[in-house]
Amino acid sequence: MRLIIAASLILLAASPGMAADGKALFNAVCARCHGTDGSFKLKGKTAVQVETALEGYRQGTYGGPQKATMQQQAARLSPEDIKALAAHIATFQ
């Protein structure tokens, strides 16, 4: 599974413009664990909450039991990716 996620991230990084598409990035990288509608731990989060969490994972200052998994994912995200993901996730109600 890690190989699939890593390959998805590499493809996204190599595709100009795609990384800024929060929905496409979410579906390629996040949906496998969080569900396509964010039903696993993401519904109701604001963009600020998501950005704060992802930046914290990147810096190793945030997280619970799944910290290692999320740190690996967040480490590969650009600041633009994080903003795009946060904006998309904030649409989940």
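The above is record 1. Record 2 follows with the same two-line structure.
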Amino acid sequence: MTYQADEHDYFYAQLDGLKLSHMILDHPLQACTAKLVSSPVESCNVRTNLNYGIDGARLRFENKVLRSANYEVVIYAAGPLAFLSSKCLAEADQDYVHG
């Protein structure tokens, strides 16, 4: 599944109806990762593996839970993850080769 982050870098993934066959292994902290897919900024669109942004960053519990009479929202975090501009990538490659 792919979810779009908002302007504050949050995304909402509704896990309503999620069936856990194993309470630990199927838990979102074990079963879910966050990956960079695409950047909203055309000039800064090269994915990096900072904090496993390409390989898949594991989620961490932020001890934030929002409760109401009808629902419960658990907040998880990953990252920070980052994109790089192609210019910065070229300069970094140049430094690596000639540094």
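The beta strands are 33-34, 46-47, 57-58, 60-67, 72-77, 83-84.
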